[in-house]
Amino acid sequence: MLDKIIGVLKNILIAVFVAIIIEEFIFGFTVVQGESMAPTVNNRDKLFVNKIGYLLHKPQIGDIVIFHPPIENRQKEYFIKRVIAMENDEFMIQNGKVFINGKKMIEDYIMNEPYIDRTADISQGKVPKGMMFVMGDNRNDSNDSRYFGFVPIKNIEGKANLRLWPFDEVKAFTVDYEKD
């Protein structure tokens, strides 16, 4: 009888260990807090996050990433934003339009409302090595690289691949990046 109990406990411990490894390094789930990525992702949406993909390749412009922000006292939080520019890309934001390496991005995914031109700390420049520039799809309500600066690629926890909840809005996220 004791051998059976020990066997069951051993199997439970192995299952818990495997689950922790999978959640930490391969994939996970997250619940969105806030409206900075609306209309693509909304408050309380539940997302599937691919954590292993960026071990095989670098993020791409257009990816929706989960990351730790480079903000003092907030490095343990998770933010969700869209990659706008990668290392060595030159970018400029002018009148609500984004230009990468001199070409205007076609951004069908952003919130459809008049752009409010606020004073941003960073609205143009060249992305340093090992960094990326991110913005929310809800440009008028997003704390992003325009205000907190470049994000180290090493701060990425994973790529949002799929919205799982609400069920009637299940959607796979693909790279929507195009230049005019």
Describe the structure.
The model has no long low-confidence stretch (mean pLDDT 83). The protein has helices spanning 2-26, 53-56, 145-148, and strands spanning 27-31, 46-50, 64-67, 79-86, 90-94, 97-100, 103-106, 124-126, 131-135, 151-152, 156-165, 171-172, 178-179. The protein starts with a helix and ends with a strand. The protein has three helices and 13 strands. It has one domain (28-179): Umud Fragment, subunit A. It has 180 residues and is α+β, with helices and mostly antiparallel strands. The relative contact order is 0.21.
Number of strands: 13
Name the CATH homologous superfamily.
Answer: Umud Fragment, subunit A
Provide the CATH architecture: Ribbon
The Cα radius of gyration reads 19 Å
**Domain count:** 1
Tell me the number of helical segments per DSSP (H or I, 4 or more residues long): 3
* Beta-strand percentage range: 25-35%
Give, in order, the helices and strands.
Answer: HEEHEEEEEEEHEEEE
Tell me the overall shape.
elongated
Kindly report the CATH topology: Umud Fragment, subunit A
The quaternary structure here is: single chain
Mind sketching the topology for me?
Elements lengths: L1 H25 E5 L14 E5 L2 H4 L7 E4 L11 E8 L3 E5 L2 E4 L2 E4 L17 E3 L4 E5 L9 H4 L2 E2 L3 E10 L5 E2 L5 E2 L1
Antiparallel strand pairs: 1-2, 2-11, 3-4, 3-11, 4-9, 5-6, 5-8, 6-7, 7-13, 9-10, 11-12
